[in-house]
Specification:
By secondary structure, the chain is of the alpha/beta class. The chain contains 14 helices and 14 strands. It has 2 domains: 4-132, Response regulator (Rossmann fold), CATH 3.40.50.2300; 171-373, Rossmann fold (3-Layer(aba) Sandwich), CATH 3.40.50.180. The termini are far apart.
């Protein structure tokens, strides 16, 4: 078996050792080299031509973001970022994903426990996903740094950032009835590897009067709130991390918190978000399977399901069940997926009504909602 060649770049000798041991314990991958900083890494890349690079964000001489930009410009290679869980760490991580990193993991907790076994499974799965993505460098264009900075600049008088000062207008009920769909309609989205940028592209195109959107993106705790806030700054609709029991409103997107399942629920005639700490499903919490299954049980005929890029099969069976119960489903196509695993599995089970390139999903979604908007809402 030809093994996946991995270069580990981290300024900590202990982390390099731990990561190398995890990688070398797998039958299908090996650590071909390690590097304490980007300058050594540059030489190792030339010497070993690694298939995948794990890259620490915070390093001396040159930080991970600067080095990532150079890699993507001069020698595109699948990169998995290794991030801290600080606020600065989360912000820089999402910048790395915008620049072309395939995925990220948090720094390992250096103790001998079940947590370390879970971490080993996580990092090796992400390396495999990055290798499988080798390499669709048809990445989404990164946002200009200046644009991001201007969005978050604080007012010199109030000290508030723009996202705190500007309250987005709520869509009126009449607008919903006249344009895309009645308030009973919903969009459920599932994604994993490559999904953060795919979600951004779709949500940026959604109008203020779009139906409510519930999203499960495989992501660790501590990152989903920042992810939602970044999306909220660039989207017309309101994007937020879901809260347990809150009403599901049109013109809003709700993102499953890291390490908690998101489910669609009801409170009387109204939809609500429900969060669960139940066991992982398909090794994931949050799990797309859980979200789609709740949609199938609550109101399938009012749902448009969307399956985006990701490794594995999480959500495929529930999406097929949701379609049998009456939902309309769209899957991302192979050419535009960073990793085609999750959409491919859903398509194989007959879950898809359409298979669409990423840059066309929002349009097809809105076209379908527009087509059914004139019909009476289906109540389940």
């Amino acid at each position: 078996m030809e093994k996946i060649k991995v270069l580990v770049v981290d300024d900590s000798a202990l982390i390099r050792s731990v990561m190398s041991k995890i990688i070398n314990s797998q039958r299908d991958m090996e650590t071909v080299a390690t590097a304490p900083d980007p300058f050594v890494a540059r030489d190792q890349i030339r010497k070993f031509s690694p298939d995948v690079i794990t890259l620490d964000i915070e390093m001396p001489k040159m930080n991970g973001i600067e080095f990532l930009e150079k890699i993507m410009r001069l020698r595109p290679t699948p990169v998995v970022m290794v991030s801290t869980m600080t606020q600065q760490g989360t912000d820089v991580t999402f910048r790395a994903l915008e620049l072309g990193a395939v995925d990220f993991v948090t720094k390992p907790k250096l103790d001998i426990s079940q947590g370390m076994i879970d971490y080993a499974n996580e990092i090796t799965d992400k390396i495999r996903a990055a290798y499988a993505a080798r390499f669709r460098l048809t990445r989404l264009p990164p946002k200009p740094v200046a644009q991001q900075a201007s969005v978050a600049q604080a007012d010199p008088v109030t000290g508030m950032v723009a996202s705190e000062k500007v309250r987005k207008p709520m869509p009126t009920h009449s607008a919903l009835g006249n344009r895309y769909a009645a308030t009973e309609k919903l969009v459920l989205i599932g994604s994993s590897t490559g999904g953060t940028e795919a979600i951004r592209l779709i949500l940026e195109q959604m109008p203020l009067d779009s139906p409510a959107i519930l999203i499960t993106q495989h992501m660790p705790a501590g990152f989903t709130k920042s992810f939602a806030e970044r999306l909220n700054q660039v989207c017309k609709i309101t994007v937020k991390e879901a809260l347990h029991g809150e009403p599901v409103l049109p013109g809003h997107a709700y993102i499953a918190p890291g390490d908690r399942h998101l489910l669609l629920g009801r409170n009387g005639a109204n939809y609500i978000c429900q969060l669960s700490d139940s066991e992982p499903v398909n090794r994931h919490r949050p799990s797309v399977e859980v979200l789609f299954k709740s949609g199938q049980e609550i109101s399938p005929r009012n749902i448009v399901g969307v399956m985006l890029t990701g490794m594995g099969k999480d959500g495929a069976q529930a999406m097929a069940d949701m379609k049998k119960a009456g939902s309309y489903n769209i899957c991302q196509d192979e050419a535009s997926s960073v990793v085609f695993g999750m959409p491919r599995e859903a398509i194989a089970l007959g879950a898809a009504d359409e298979v669409v390139a990423l840059d066309q999903i929002a349009k097809r979604l809105l076209d379908h909602l527009s087509k059914i908007a004139g019909r009476s809402a289906v109540r389940v």
